[in-house]
Amino acid sequence: MVSVRDAAGIRPAPDLETARRTAGEVADPEVPVLTIADLGILRDVAVDGDAVTVTLTPTYSGCPAVDAIRDDVVLALTRAGFARVDVRLTLAPAWTTDWMSEDGKAKLRAYGIAPPTGRAAVRGPIPVTLGVACPRCGTLRTREVSRFGSTACKALYECQECGEPFDHFKVH
């Protein structure tokens, strides 16, 4: 293992595993219970000595959180010992909710946001949503209040059983 000298002495040089873990642990600024790994927007991590390149796919091309995520990834990796950090964005292939981890979907539910159901891979006519389960009480007796919720990638729903409003990640 290569070592580098810092003010505190000698420490191991950062490696690919450290880079992947560190980048993956960066929180989504819009839904802080999710990491970028949970969301599935962390596409690739490559290490060359003390330099790291991270590739991200935003949830949609106009996502306002991209700059904050990029800055947080750079900060986290710099703190982890990487001297040079390059964060690249790619829009192809387009992000899909199918890339979200099951752990991330469980975190969404616990946070009060209905997770996507994984139908993004369906081709052809747009599937009809028969019901979105309330993340609080689990009933399917819910209704869409607004196609846009707290962010453009979520819709606002209301539970007709417990009366609570909640966001639902749109399937794309």
Folded structure, characterized:
Pfam families: FeS_assembly_P, Zn_ribbon_PaaD. InterPro entries: Fe-S_Maturation_MIP18, FSCA_dom_sf, MIP18-like, PaaD-like, Zn_ribbon_PaaD. The chain has about 170 residues and is α/β, with parallel strands linked by helices. Helix content is about 20%, strand content about 25%. It has 2 domains: about 5-90, GMP Synthetase, Chain A, domain 3, CATH 3.30.300; about 110-170, no CATH class. A hairpin with a 2-residue loop joins strand 3 and strand 4 (about 50-55). The longest helix is centred in the middle third of the chain and has 14 residues, at about 65-80.
List its traits:
1,2-phenylacetyl-CoA epoxidase subunit PaaD; GMP Synthetase, Chain A, domain 3; alpha/beta; 3-stranded mixed beta sheet; Zn_ribbon_PaaD; 2 domains; Fe-S_Maturation_MIP18; 172 residues; FSCA_dom_sf
At the first level of CATH, the class of the largest domain is: Alpha Beta
* Number of domains as seen in the coordinates: 2
**Cα gyration radius (Å):** 19 Å
Strand proportion, as a percent range, falls in 25-35%
Give average pLDDT, whole number: 86
Question: Span from first to last CA?
Answer: 42 Å
Helix share, percent: 10-25%
Order of helices and strands: EEHHEEHEHEEEE
Strand order of the largest sheet: 6-9-8-7
Categorize the overall geometry: elongated
Number of β-strand runs: 9
User: Looking at this structure, what is the CATH superfamily of the largest domain?
Assistant: Fe-S cluster assembly (FSCA)
Q: Main sheet, how many strands, which sense, barrel?
A: 4 strands, mixed
Helix count equals: 4
Q: Quickly give the CATH architecture of the largest domain.
A: 2-Layer Sandwich
Name the poorly predicted regions.
Answer: 1-6
Please identify the structural class as seen in this structure: alpha/beta
Task: Kindly identify the CATH topology of the largest domain.
Answer: GMP Synthetase, Chain A, domain 3
Pfam families: FeS_assembly_P, Zn_ribbon_PaaD
InterPro entries: Fe-S_Maturation_MIP18 (IPR052339), FSCA_dom_sf (IPR034904), MIP18-like (IPR002744), PaaD-like (IPR011883), Zn_ribbon_PaaD (IPR056572)
Domain PaaD zinc beta ribbon: 130-170
Domain MIP18 family-like: 25-78
